[in-house]
Amino acid sequence: MVPGAKERPVQEFLNVLLFRPLAHLVVLLLYRTRVRPHHLVLFHTLLVLLAARLIHLGQDVPAAFLLQLKTVLDNADGQLARLRGEVTELGRYLDTELDFLGNLFLFLALGFRTGAWGWAFAAFLVFTLVQTWDFNLERLYRKARGLFLPPEPQDPETPLLALLRGVYRFLFLPQDRAVTALEEALARRLGLDPLRFWDEAALAGVVNLGLTTQLFFLGVFLALHQPGAYLTFVLLQAVYLGAWYLWRIARSIPSPR
């Protein structure tokens, strides 16, 4: 594993294959500088906002390149923070919320570009749902096995931290609670085996639709000058997720003795 990479039960394939090794090269260059992880977060957020503007203007290839650079730096900020011991509560909220902002602007740009506002809105909802499921399924995986969740850093209270925490509780906490409640209710009512319902195979079904993979394929569709096809690609993930969910349930029903 690349030094400083986040430990997860199942890793996103494109991260392991490509983006984390590239990010590690960035970390090696920055490790002894004054650049802090939150500087990278702010910079790669600017990149994704610029990419959104380029999509709106029809500059697809430069936008595709910026999105891949954004992914490299998005990996680098976490690696740098962990290697330096600079993981912070502020950084966690900042990264999550600015990623959300960047994703929102990307889908707004796709809506402007294609004129398919309904599809763009629906695709954004599916996209967000996939990321939420990815985050919460790992927590349920750990809980089912009695594994400790990674400790959350606690920063000194500041107005900015309070603001970002409030935004997180408003935007993301309801999603987390809804996904967790649905998963646990289904497991309980159907008598599912938790070690199979929340296992590595289940995690792999959403981990490999994570943000890295999503932006990679958006870049591919942009390079082909087919931004509208990316909306279709994301919407088809809803069909896939439905089938994936039924598969998870079916394989987790205990066999009769």
TrEMBL record:
Which Gene Ontology molecular-function terms are recorded?
Answer: phosphotransferase activity, for other substituted phosphate groups
Q: Which GO terms describe its biological process?
A: phospholipid biosynthetic process
CC terms in the record's Gene Ontology section? membrane
Give the residue spans that cross the bilayer.
40-58, 104-130, 201-223, 229-247
Q: Name one Pfam family in it.
A: CDP-OH_P_transf
InterPro entries per the record?
A: CDP-OH_P_trans, CDP-OH_PTrfase_TM_dom, CDP_ALCOHOL_P_TRANSF_CS
Question: Keywords in UniProt for this one?
Answer: Membrane, Transferase, Transmembrane, Transmembrane helix
Looking up Gene3D superfamilies in the UniProt record yields:
1.20.120.1760
Q: Which family does it belong to?
A: Belongs to the CDP-alcohol phosphatidyltransferase class-I family.
Name of the protein this chain belongs to = CDP-alcohol phosphatidyltransferase
